[in-house]
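Q: I have 434 residues here and want to know how they pack in 3D. Can you give me a structure?
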Amino acid sequence: MIGLPEKFIGRMKNQLPEEEWGAFFGVYGKAPYKGIRVNPLKISAADFAKISPFALRRVPWEENGFYTEAEKPGGHPYHFAGLYYSQEPSAMCAAPLLGAAPGERVLDLCAAPGGKGTQLAAAMGGEGILVLNEPVFARAQILSQNVERLGVKNAAVLNESPARLAAFFGEYFDKILVDAPCSGEGMFRKNAEEALGEWSEENVAKCAARQKEILDEAAKMLRPGGRLVYSTCTFSEEEDEEQAADFLRAHSDFRLSGQKKLYPHKAEGEGHFAAVFERLPAADCAAGTVRELKPRISRSGETLYRAFEKEFLNVSLTRLHEAGGMLYALPEGMFDWKDLHVLRAGIRLGELKNGRFEPSHSLAMCLKKEEFASAADFAPDDGRTEKFLHGETVEADGKESGWCGVCVGGFPVGWGKAVGGIVKNHIPKGLRKF
């Protein structure tokens, strides 16, 4: 049984009916729920169920979500290939409420480590503009890695404050998700030492004040007629229901269209809150505009890339953009980011250096096996799979030569370079599994 703070116990007794106390506090003597969310940008939930290395049971509020009892689901090669994301089941409830759709402009304002943002990416299916922002740089780097692993093609990962984004974008977005920093009461089972160590009534009040600031900035970026979802992983009413009510009092052009609160004694999850706000339409309800980036690439850069593409790929990418020696393939409508701190935008194709084009890991993770002109494909339990993911050189089966995709069970995990019957490893050193 987890030792809960006395003040937390008192607060929850005031918040819940007495007949629910036993069930609620009883969950802290049980193991937390674990889940994965299948990534439909790579594979459908139905097809993944056929090859899943562990037993699955559906999460009711997310069509691609599953409960799992696997000890370390993140340790399987299919996780490295981006087929799924490890995510606490109740945390999957907020993103579907936003209703993100292909072609829209969508913002996840506090996006790290990427669970909800990559849910939004799945809903958008690679079409539209998805902005994933994280104010803390170290967390933004983790977010960027997860976006890369899951093969998201239409996202920009930013490292900015909400206030700076609001000043830049104005009423630009159709949909905004604010998964705000909170007191983390829903993390007491999953991450007991850290969550319990940081909890106090003072921290609850501090989080509520910060959440209000973030929501106020988010409201400035939503177009009239747009939707905003606010979520937390805590039970505190100051951060949940009262925060939603305060927001409505301060923003008369918004209305509340729904709320959801998952408690661990009533739903199979650690606990989550979400409120859905609609901004009322205005007479002139066109979305705000920012300057669109017109893709530019040097003649030499395009020549080098197209030569690589012709020899090593079976797909031709468009909207090529060159910046700082790097090449990108940008989604339609990408904004000009020169005044923002952007970690990634669209597909990072690779680097131009010393008169050649060298492909990036991002490009490999966005492709399908058949889009490589040549691919080495190993079974998940093939010894070469573990070696390659550890950064080692492996023997090739076929006649691969030069740059080739390396796949596990038909799903890309990175680039290799085949020479004389072996495949040299080009997984970035920081991503190799040790």
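Q: Anything worth noting?
A: The chain has a mean pLDDT of 96. DSSP finds 14 helices and 21 strands in the chain.
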